[in-house]
């Protein structure tokens, strides 16, 4: 059944969006910044993965861990250099800076290694197929889905059961109060970036394994879509990003399935506009009023 | 002075989710009165102002100005009907000059269209000239005309507060809402403010509703006082009555009310 | 006395404008400038129009719209359709391009009313993308391969459009309507409370700003022989955004200066697009950290020429006096 196939594709795609969306939502939740450069961290993760596999001959798990580690550090660097000085600036100034960082990473990458795409080898993960409900599921899809699920569960654990997670939640509610309670706000923010970027890096590797082709500007569209997913679920709300990502992936696949595949990129933006018009706080969000 | 009150608030309330920020408030203001609105922090006083000015739409009850129902009108429409206000935290147009801040309040009276301004038709020039003259006259009344080209954000605090009141008045209200105008002022400044309020009330035939925490100010200028606590009206009356009202004293938890 | 100064300023501007036009025309028809310089000049004028139109939306009215390339695209394609498919004269096509973009501006402006800051930015970005994707999929306008367009743009058209754009936006800004928009930027809640119909003015700003972006689109389309959806992505929107941000949010002369400077930089870095983008991005980041006010802050260039600080003049426009 075509429908079930597309559903499965949608969930695979959606889990990639979800992993990226988590980084957006965590950062927005804690410092109210839309990290435009997040999609480019995803790209960096994909490239790190590529070079690790082809250049160093590493296998899946080490590659995943390496990409996550590199992106983690990268994300913290960006935060410390470009975003920290703007902690007290207007939101627009921070947004413009994020755009600048994003452009810098993209064109810096092109400058350094050219704009040509690369192809992930297709044999990193075992590829057998299963047939369920008339649809074909590759073991690759399952692997990817499994990895995503594990990462999300890990994230939930960190956020709810560890000290740093508690600090993250505290700072996102009220940074000043958290500071007064003895929480190191700067480190907590950096940790948030670290975790979010690690997830984006993982998403990059997963994307490469699943879709094979990677190139320096690959982060732009998935980045924007992941942001839409975060808004869809309720920006700043972690389960919202997971649900939003999966939902968006499924919607996109279904739109493609009913024949409008040329418009699939537009889906995310239409969803965005609809959400912003009808329910700006997202599926899980609450309305926050400006104090007059 | 007719028997119809200028402002009639009937059982007004607003609910945010599960929280009733204001509920069951009944109030009347007659033309020319100077009435105070007091209550502990978080009582809902500014929320009440926001209801009167259309920032919030009441979820219950109605607000009538000169017999006309205001519920659901946009803030700018309510302003044009005759209610103007100042804010608890000063909201001036920082990058505009003192003169321009006041001119903005005259905007709703301007009759020249966007097209006329773009094409620089005669109606634009006459309209702008009129606004300029009126605004300068206005600043003179408030002794701010010497500062007319200063950027509002560069003014010292006391003058910013004065400018905000001047601007609110330039909108030609029948009812002026002042939200903690004396906040952050020393006794000398507060005295000058009291004189200013008395002056503008007489000069502009205004009705004034005043939120304040400064009790000497409130007791000194207000003819009547409403007391709000937890979003509900707990007392109303003359300053003497309020001063001795046990419910009011309790609401402030033993704070000096006199 | 002030009246005479204003009248002097007015006539001075007219003479200056005429002079620039004549010089430009002479340089071009006399073939003193080669096509590289002519193209750069035209590009500069188009960029100034774009910068000034975005300045009205972001700088004056405070609506953070970062999908401006969408309006450019609408104007470009609408005007191209009118010349190439409907055989209409260039002037009509330009006007249609502007109007079509203005309609798009209304469509964006109205839902944007309830959105603030970041959300508005993302929504406008999304809109820009929707336009691009839409054009990508419509065969009537050539889809991904784009549309061929005759070269109808010349110095007269470019200069005239530039002049009209600047005059309209300066006149709008220096009036009660401009003040209304600035009050929205400064403090929307207070603007509401002072009787400003903020909805109306936000929409008006979008409509006027997008109209001129559409005009720029028409000029752009008829200058570069071919238009493709890829020309109008968010990179183009960021290009325009940088003009306004570098110039100083709130300063029209800043936007003009930045547009001129960056067009020149861009022209010389034509063969090194990555270097150009890296420079742009560094400029953005460094500026936001160290001088968020941009080159001019909210000041205008005329303020350096007048000894007495002047507020918004109600008198005749001399073409340069602007708000705050």
TrEMBL record, chain B:
Alphabetical keyword list: ATP-binding, Nucleotide-binding, Transport
GO MF annotation terms: ATP binding; ATP hydrolysis activity; L-isoleucine transmembrane transporter activity; L-phenylalanine transmembrane transporter activity; L-valine transmembrane transporter activity
Ranges where the ABC transporter domain occurs: 7-255
InterPro entries: AAA+_ATPase, ABC_AA/LPS_Transport, ABC_transporter-like_ATP-bd, BCA_ABC_TP_C, P-loop_NTPase
Keyword Plastid: no
Pfam families in the cross-refs: ABC_tran, BCA_ABC_TP_C
Gene Ontology BP annotations: D-alanine transmembrane transport; L-alanine transport; L-isoleucine import across plasma membrane; L-valine import across plasma membrane
Domain of life: Bacteria
Protein name per its UniProtKB record: ABC transporter ATP-binding protein
Organism from which the protein derives: Aneurinibacillus danicus
